[in-house]
Amino acid sequence: MSHNTESVAGLLDGELKGLRLWLAKRHISACPVCALEYRHQQRVRRLLRANPTAAAMGDSAEFFWSKVKTEIQRRGEESIEVPLPRLALADWLRQHQFAMATAVALVIAAGSAVWFMQTVRRAPEVTASVAAPAGFAEVEQLKTPVPHSAATTFDSEDAGVTVIWVTGLPWTPDMNEMKTQFANLDT
Amino acid sequence: MRWLMAALLGVVLGASVQAASIEARLIRASNEADKPDEQLTKLEPKLKKVFGYRHYQQLGLQRGPLKENSQLRLDLGEGIVIFVTPRAEEKKGRMMDFEMYSGRAALVKSSIRVGRGELLVKGPDVGDTVLVVSLAVVE
Fold first, then answer.
1. Has residue B15 got a pLDDT over 80?
2. Domain residues for A116?
3. Which residues contact residue B42 at a Cβ distance below 8 angstroms, ignoring those fewer than 6 apart?
4. Which of A131, A177, B70, B83 makes the best surface tag, with the fewest CB within 10 Å?
């Protein structure tokens, strides 16, 4: 530690704390120059405490206060702007360290939550590669032995059924005629 | 006690090997203004969507157990007869041969794999109506 009279003064005034206090004490105990300075400043302080300077005023106390009263009465209701001390941003932050740390943590947590939600939304939807169980019948072979007739098959998704649609069958006017005609139709 | 156990076992085994059955209906679709057929309450909405007629009447209903490689004959009435021969049961459904006759005339011959849904077969046109056969496997 280098010779530093401010450190000696700080030690005497009780301003040093922790590591700085320890370092200062160690240096003074080892350095004769600083030890001499320490003792000198200690003596000066002792003398100052023993002989305080008395405050001297030109006016007596009663006259001084009467002047203050007169001034107050003279100004009356006049409003006076009292400048308020303003804290610098750094000082304000230093005073509200805990609140700042909490606010920063909340902002980080909120940002992480938003990012996570967006990531989840953007995740591709996994569609099952396995086909859902079929509710429709599957027609593998289809024949219409009746001459000039044909059949086709389709799935009616709206109705949820499979349909075999036969066309070209002979039209008959009624059920009896149908039975007669088809009874004689040899396929 | 032994007889009771044997009877219980028989019931359990019978239930487990209970064969599925097939249910076939002959339906007449028309535009007649008539009361809906209560026997077709569940099927009518589907029939309307496919065929578009206003009224559906059940002319015949037949059920029969499905036995592999055993042909099942179902007479639905009005000369319409269907033959169903189950082949193999697969994951997707039951494979079966299906034939629909009107009298001696084979109208349709098909190999189908029936799942949970119905199969509708549009048959001959009779007057202003059309005959439809519905087929469903009942487990």
1. no
2. 93-120
3. none
4. A131
